Amino acid sequence: MNYNWKLSETKFTKDKGKVFSCFACGGGSTMGYKLAGFDVIGMNEIDPKMAECYIENHNPKYSFIEPIQTFKNRKDLPEELFNLDILDGSPPCSSFSMSGNRDKDWGKEKKFREGQTEQILDTLFFDFIDLTKRLQPKIVVAENVKGILLGDAKKYVVKIYKEFEKAGYILQHYLLNASKMGVPQRRERVFFIGLRKDLCKPFMEQINLFESKPKLKLEFNEKEILFKKIKTNHNDNILTDYDVNIWNNRIDTDNDFCDTLMRIEKRESNWNSKYIHDDKVCLTITSSSGSKMVLYSEPRKLNNDELCKAGSFPLDYNFLTNKPKYIIGMSVPPLMIAKIAEQIYNQWLKKL
Fold first, then answer.
1. 90-124 b/e (C-beta count within 10 Å ≥ 16 → b)
2. E-assigned strands of the chain?
3. N- or C-end of the chain: fewer Cβ atoms within 10 A?
4. Pick the CATH number of 7-223+331-351 from 3.40.50.150, 3.90.1150.10, 3.40.50.300, 3.40.50.880
5. Is 130 in a helix, a strand, or coil?
């Protein structure tokens, strides 16, 4: 598995088990499971534009384009969905992101983006747990931002553990960094991984005097991939004349345009325009920042090939009318999920 790849040149074995993806977006996690040898049989996604892109690239057997609140209560779900090896989901996480409003947005209805219905974003995780309780997959994997482990958001984590326990699962969570997993990007994500209780016995180990868990070792320490390894020569994302002037005034200690502007204009602005250094790992790509990342070595933003490589997306992925930086910034890096899925299979599934 490598960050530099194409869908058209990759053979997916589909022999490791069946997966269904919720909050599927453009299919970042789906590609990871497929790279690890799993058969992703379907998806649920609320956004029609994202679903269209997913279907174009993955041609799923089952597509449910609707809110998870209605999907989880469907009376016509296929029998295959009740025999899954893994139920996967990435509940929208802006309510917990350190770059968002956090607790100011908790409990409020809002649209995640144009074209979607209003939802209370921080309760979507519990809709996903409701679906888990109904489908009873062998394993459940839920991804979220690092911010869910910080401050008052930790109360949600306590509730997530309790609700998964009620649903019949022993849960664990792991904070992982994509840059240690073969992905050319610094991206920290939390993965909640649960094993159905009736399957846990062969894997149990004592954690402390009061608690035992099914053993799952997820430790990754691959050599980091510097930006110069994924840098290309074409410049299809040029800066405006104003931005070039800022760029021309940069110094080595500047982290972003805001640092530069504070020196030359004494004002705070453009803090999202981060400098990307050739001899460092690419910073986290988000749906809003991906096109604002500026190379320190030349006056341009990241081009689409660099965005794909940094996100371990295939170079021939068809984004349709969507901006690559939006889908890549919204998605779990495929290679990150592939490494996790590989360990889930080797340590658990193939021994069941």
1. bbbbbbbbeeeebeebbeeeeebeeebeebbbbbb
2. 18-22, 39-44, 62-64, 86-89, 109-110, 119-120, 139-145, 169-177, 188-196, 204-206, 212-214, 275-276, 294-295
3. C
4. 3.40.50.150
5. helix
Q: Which two tokens stand for residue 74?
A: 């469907």
Contact 132, 87 (CB under 8 A): yes
Instruction: Return d(Cα 235, Cα 245) in angstroms, integer.
Output: 18
93 belongs to the catalytic site: yes
H and E: helices and strands count for the chain: 10, 13
What's the full length of the chain, in residues? Answer: 352
Q: Which of 53, 93, 258, 308 is catalytic?
A: 93
Which DSSP helix (H) or strand (E) runs through 34? Answer: helix 28-35
* Domain locations in the chain as residue ranges: 7-223+331-351
Picking from 245, 342, 326, the residue whose alpha carbon sits closest to that of residue 291 is 326
Name the pTM for this structure.
0.92
pLDDT (tens, 9 = 90+) of the chain, 352 residues, equals: 899 999 999 999 999 999 999 999 999 999 999 999 999 999 999 999 999 999 999 999 999 999 999 999 999 999 999 999 999 999 986 555 444 443 444 444 455 554 445 555 668 999 999 999 999 999 999 999 998 998 888 888 999 999 999 999 999 999 999 999 999 999 999 999 999 999 999 999 998 888 899 999 999 999 999 999 999 988 777 899 999 999 999 999 999 999 999 999 999 988 889 999 999 999 999 887 555 899 999 999 999 999 999 999 999 999 999 999 999 999 999 999 999 999 999 999 999 9
Residue 282: which of 229, 206, 220 has the closest Cα? Answer: 229
Classified as helix, coil or strand, 238 is strand
